[in-house]
Amino acid sequence: MVIIINISDIYIFIPELYLTLTVFILLIYGIFYSTNKYYGYPILSKNFGYLVVITFTYILFLIINTPDFLSTYFPSFFFFNNSLKWIKTIFLLVGICYVFLVISNISLEKLNVFEFFLLFILSILSIFLIISTFDLLSIYISLEMLNLIFYVLATIRRTSEFSTEAGLKYFILGVFSTGLLLFGIALIYGCIGITNFIDLSLFFQSIMKEKSILEIPTDLLLGLVFISTAFFFKLSAAPFHMWSPDVYEGTLTSIITLFIIFTKITIFFLFINLFGTSLFELFNVWQKLTLICAFFSLFLGTFIAFAQTKFKRFLAYSSINHVGFIMIAVSSINYNGFYSLIFYMMIYILINLGIFASLLSLRNFRNYKFNHQIRYISEFTILSKTHPIIAFSILIILFSISGIPPIAGFFTKLIVFLTCLKSSLYSLVIFAITISCLATFYYIRIIKIIYFDNCNVWLIYVPMDKSKAFVLSFSVLLLTFFCLNPNLIINSIYIISTIN
Amino acid sequence: MIQQNYYLILGIIMFLFGIFGIFLNRKNILVILISLELLILAINLLFITFSVFLDDIVGQVFCLIVLTVAAAESAIGLAILVVYYRICGNISVELINLIKG
């Protein structure tokens, strides 16, 4: 292993370098000002939010202006291609939307630490590293970077019993899944002595020409199973989902938004990178694993969500259900699988931006000092009278999740099912359609609670502010008017997923 | 090769001890953190063994990186545990049941 760093490597790496330098400068700035008696110990949270937006805008220009070519850099630890460039752009845009979502909630939730946005920048940096990994070693480092940031973020409310408990649970199960990942990597490394993706794919191509899958050594297959189990843990796919509802319930809502929107998508990209390119020849093995996980996450994500009374737990199970659908797209391993996966993710991001914009703005207003986030689904009653616009947008978003035709969610499920049919997984498609029909029940139940239930005591809410309204309208309008010209978005996503 | 098997079996037994320590432990969260650390150290032993017997340096590099990251990880874990202890006043596994469905 010879480490030679070329100038051209650094040239590709400029956006990430810029992010790192920004983190250092912002850290110095934050520590200097927030501990300065002369300025009166200012609370820098909002200021940092706007600085993050400026940083992301600069990096957007840096990323768009990087030349289009395919290469690996830092001796093939990371790779770069054209579709990755657009995916990074999408992540930055979503990051800016996220800042607009939480920036007003910071004073409401009394999250008066400037480190929150620093950790957010660092998590975006680690996401960039994760989606461009090209080596088993760099998978471990970048995943661990993201996880360490998220353990801190889950416990960022130090004085809350819920938050610390959720952070503890997240930490224990996160480290356990990292252990499984490392064990799998160790087995694969010990069996063939290769860690690079290209080398792995060449090795498996040559070995599968001569031998059948039964002759492959069992440690190799065991390593594959361990690695995929670790990924399912991180994705909270169904047999390994037990931590996610607890963590989602305990942590602050603005941080849960970060977890739900960013982690699943990054880890799915990593999954596709690893399993779709380097371990592609072993798809007979990992396709079965993903199919089992897809089945369980569709089943449990639907039926346990029936019993939930708290809205955040409900969202957790709903996201497990989404993971099931994305897993179907992954397991239909033709080229359209990758494309339908990206398409599903884009709509998933939009749906979650909308649903969290509406959830974050629903804060029950007691008096000037006390307002708290809505927790129970039953608290949504009479929302159509007290907050008609939010009620209507929740209606649109829930219709989109359940897949009612003219709204964008329908097209995502349609494309996933069509790709799945192409690789002739008929029984799974029938099962998924049945499950999604059943799942509409509990989405429509919430709409019924919002529009038709009555109660005597009407809750009063803190008024919604401009930035959250901006994000909410962006998401809802895009979801609604998607049907007018679906080819525009579908074709652009197709181009993103096919260029290499 | 027999020697290699001894090392590997030792590593795998340590790994299993780590897993059982997490799941069978009913008393103390600190013990869970110790078993997590044991899990990662067992994997390090595997990496070192493989790297020696494959005559390849990557495994040792991997092991060093895993060690440093695991140190950072345990620091964060202990910090979370301290914060938890300040609020709840105990670190018993049976009492982490505030959040449940």
Give a description of the structure.
The complex is a heterodimer of chains A (500) and B (101). With 500 residues, chain A is mainly α. Among the domains of chain A are: 1-133; 332-500, no CATH class. Chain A has 21 helices and four strands. In chain A, the strands form two sheets. In chain A, strands 1-2 form a two-stranded antiparallel ribbon. The mean pLDDT of chain A is 88. Chain B is an all-alpha fold. Chain B has a single domain, classed as Helix Hairpins, CATH 1.10.287. Chain B is built from three helices and no strands. Chain B has helices at 2-24, 29-54, 58-88. In chain B, helix 1 packs antiparallel against helix 2 and helix 2 packs antiparallel against helix 3. The longest helix of chain B has 31 residues, at 58-88. The mean pLDDT of chain B is 89. Classes of the chains: A mainly alpha (500), B mainly alpha (101). The A-B interface holds A 1, 137, 140-141, 144, 148, 151-152, 155, 158-162, 164-169, 171-172, 175-176, 178-179, 182-183, 185-187, 189-190, 193, 195, 245-246, 249-250, 304, 307-308, 310, 313 and B 8, 15, 18-19, 22, 29, 32-33, 36, 39-40, 43, 46-47, 49-50, 54, 56-59, 61-62, 65-66, 69, 72-73, 76-77, 80-81, 83-84, 87-88, 96, 98-101. Chain B: Pfam families: Oxidored_q2. Chain B: Belongs to the complex I subunit 4L family. Chain B: The chain crosses the membrane at residues 6-24, 31-53, 59-85.
